[in-house]
Amino acid sequence: MLPTMKSRPHDRAGHRTKGRGSSSSSPRRPADAPAKHHNSPLGGAAVQPVSAPLSPDPSQPLPAVTLRGIVRHPLIYRKRIARADRQARPGDLVAVYAEGEDRNVSPELLGYGYYNPRSEIAVRMLRYGEQLPDETFWQSRLKEAVDLRRKLLRLDEVTDSYRVIHAEADGFPGLVVDRFGDTLSAEVFSLGMFQRCPEILKRLALLCDAQHTVIQPGPHTLPQEGFASEAILSADCPGSVTIQEFGTRFRVRFEGGHKTGFFCDQRDNRQRLASFCRGASVLDLCCYSGGFSIQAKRLGQAEDVTGVDLDEAPLKLARENANLNQARVRFVQADIFPFMRDTLQNGRQFDVVVLDPPKLINSRVEKEEGARKHFDMNRLAMRLVKPGGLLLSCSCAGLLPEEEFLRLLYGAARQAGPLEGESPEGFSRYAARTMQVLAKTGAASDHPVASHCLETEYLKAVWMRLL
Length: 467
Prior knowledge:
By secondary structure, the protein is of the alpha/beta class. The chain is 23% helix and 28% strand.
């Protein structure tokens, strides 16, 4: 049985453009200090999330939400709702019905989901069919998720750090959970799931042999879900843990860290990159806590490695990680745009360049600007690759499809050659550079993709040779 939960302040990462994560220090709120009140951009005071039972009382009727027709996607937008019972409150488990074309026929019961009228995603489907999500349902779904990682993928043989629950792909809408040693770190994106997360983690910890838990809201829960909360840590939960990945050690900090604390999704890509690095010069842009940089040096035996990030805190952690592995890596705190331009002016190029920026597109209104940032940084990064060298370019923006990301990279390559002069309009003109796409990969296999929710496939990694 896990100890009683307690709260600690948590600094959620803001929108950044020059590094994959951000952090800042925050004083702890004394236990007897009043809680902060937030105003929700959705109108009125933010919902104060309170714990809710996992399994509903079968003797009590659930509020009903009726949709305009059958929806097969687990994320149901507000515009698809025809009506909802007045007693349905934000975060409630509701019975979800669908209207047919014949209004004289009673709506069909689709299943059950979490309701939040304050969110654009008003219903997140949990279970389809007539049977309520009872204790047996929860235990079965949790065991399926754990068995995938421990029995089928056998991840315990190569690491003690991996994703245990990958949101809708594992049937937990709005929830991701990563395992870091004996600690489970959860990031929650929906109010309904946040209210039930402590109970979920209690059960999950028993299946994973974990001792501690961390629960933190996603970075946009106030504007998107209408609730705010501090992080919740189990009693005696450590502030940091040390994990290993293919024998390389990394320290993970929970307070002030980004997302769950470490990027498990790039684990296989880090190992793959190392195979290109023997005796090479490597530049890791947006290096965060040094994952690619340190694996390039330790596993790949690179000649020299430089990691660049905007934020001081993750770079401090990256240096600690390098010391843990006796890996000699140069880390630079800088905005990657002026850093790349200065490096180009100095005539420096690298055998291998990694570009793994933070999520640049958080909503559809940000898509055009985010795509432009991807284009600009890739065009500069390509110029830093020696002829015949490798560029690994990544995007974790789910709203930027792979085919659009590839077109963006092809366009950047057409302007990544040497400066040719000025166009008639007075702009600098760059020559094209030949680019060969060697491979396209994504997140590690502990981040499965659900056939009914393709948004669970978000990470794109393109491996390119530049001539």
